[in-house]
Specification:
Archaeal_FAD_synthase, nucleotidyltransferase, Rossmann fold, transferase, 6-stranded parallel beta sheet, Rossmann-like_a/b/a_fold, alpha/beta, Cytidyltransferase-like domain-containing protein, 6 strands, 164 residues
């Protein structure tokens, strides 16, 4: 199993300086094929993949009060167990926060294409340009072979009828 850390500082202390790495972040609640699509792509870009698993309190700020379904410790353990992931850490702030970017200086970052939130994406891009100007920014189109998202799975479960 990959290593799980409690902060970006802990990750920085163990990252081999001779290796290039990609960073991604997310809630990773109810792991599904869309998450695997992202992690596999991100891992292919550099030598190592570092994943920021958003803490329960941080995820609630942008999801809703009922999310995440699975607690941060379990989500981090699941993400860390995926073969594409080299390091996972639990984060109380956005992985595109200026302090995190300045500390880790990833060689690449990957964002899922989310056309609905351009203001948020513009701020992320600005932070990268300021804190880690050599970082390559990649955008990955959503997995689209079928409709999939954690919200979709939750709604499907909520509306399912139990056969008699």
């Amino acid at each position: 199993m990959s290593n799980i850390f409690q902060s970006a500082i802990e990750v920085k202390n163990v990252l081999p300086q001779s290796k290039r790495f990609t960073m991604v972040g997310g809630c990773f609640d109810l792991i599904h094929v869309g998450h695997i699509h992202l992690l596999e792509y991100a891992a292919s870009l550099e030598d190592l993949l570092v994943v920021a698993v958003l803490s329960d309190s941080y995820a609630r700020k942008y999801k809703d009060s009922l999310r995440p379904i699975i607690n941060q410790k379990q989500r981090a353990k699941m993400v860390a167990s995926i073969r594409f992931v080299d390091f996972a850490y639990i984060s109380d702030i956005s992985p595109s926060n200026l302090e995190t970017l300045h500390l880790l200086k990833p060689d690449s970052v990957v964002f899922g294409e989310e056309p609905s939130n351009t203001e948020k994406m513009e701020q992320r891009m600005k932070n990268i340009m300021i804190a880690s100007p050599r970082t390559k920014i990649r955008f990955l189109p959503r997995y689209n072979e079928e409709e999939i998202s954690t919200s979709y799975i939750i709604n499907k479960i909520r509306t399912a009828t139990i056969p008699e």
